[in-house]
Design brief:
Helices cover about 40% and strands about 15% of the residues. The protein has eleven helices and nine strands. The chain is an alpha/beta fold and about 250 residues long. The radius of gyration is 17 Å and the shape is globular. It has a single domain (about 5-215, about 230-245), classed as Divalent-metal-dependent TIM barrel enzymes (TIM Barrel, Alpha-Beta Barrel).
């Protein structure tokens, strides 16, 4: 199954602006040049997305939603309606990453979800934070143990910033994960766990182009968890930087 490509933005970045003016914020995102977005908790914003995506010529090829804890049939039905093909679970409990057996159980749950998703023509993915890399078992990152136990059709959206914070050699990690990596979260900052120190892509210390170069076909999703600056403007500045440097 082919996966989405190109440049997108995780709407969680502009969550506060969306809460104030959902339609107006989508208009700003489209105005920066984005044609793709990655919604979060999209079942909570179904009506707004139904109206806003088409109005502003935005596609939502991927989404973050609590797949392992939510109503999967509802999630898959909405994804299909919105034209979303990649459904990504964004977070699991940190405590579940301390042993190989627990990680294998997460993989089994993702595999089961993927089997259901396939009936809808959808793909399931997983997105990491730092703790999946901080967990090292027998010399290997927890995220790699997960990958070893995933069905072939389950993919990863590697958050390159949190992988860096978690202690991974991100370039080597992406190389080892190979074609499993269908998407990247592209973010920048000072390389620490302080969300407020995140910046527009290109304004921090992260070698984002080196990471992209290892997975050039992966969907590139801009995200800031937070920032000391204006988050909406950071989304625009990130687009300008990444679009100017594209191959």
């Amino acid at each position: 199954m082919s996966h989405p490509t190109g440049l997108s933005v995780q709407l969680y970045t502009v969550r506060n602006a969306l809460a104030e003016d959902f339609d107006g914020t989508l208009a700003k995102v489209a105005g920066f040049g984005y044609t793709q977005v990655e919604p979060f908790s999209f079942t909570n914003f179904a009506d707004e997305l139904r109206a806003g995506l088409s109005k502003h010529n935005l596609a939502a090829p991927s989404t973050h939603v609590g797949l392992l804890s939510g109503d999967q049939e509802e999630i898959f039905a909405l994804a299909k309606e919105l034209g979303t093909t990649l459904v990504i679970d964004p977070h699991t409990d940190r405590a579940r990453w301390q042993s190989a057996d627990d990680i294998k159980q997460i993989a089994a749950e993702l595999n089961a979800a993927a089997e259901k998703a396939a009936a809808h023509g959808l793909t399931v993915g997983y997105h990491n934070h730092a703790f999946e890399l901080e967990s090292v078992i027998d010399g290997r990152h927890g995220l790699e143990i997960l990958a070893d136990n995933l069905a072939p059709e389950v993919v990863l959206e590697v958050d390159t910033y949190w992988a860096l914070v978690g202690g991974a050699d991100v370039i080597a990690l992406l190389g080892r994960l190979g074609s499993r990596v269908a998407a990247l979260h592209v973010k920048d900052g000072d390389g620490t766990s302080d969300n407020k120190k995140q910046t527009a892509v290109g304004a921090g210390v992260v070698p984002v182009w080196d990471y992209i170069g290892v997975a050039p076909e992966a969907l590139r999703v801009v995200e800031l968890d937070d920032s000391e600056g204006d988050l909406v403007q950071a989304v625009g500045d990130s687009y300008s930087y990444l679009n100017a440097g594209k191959a």
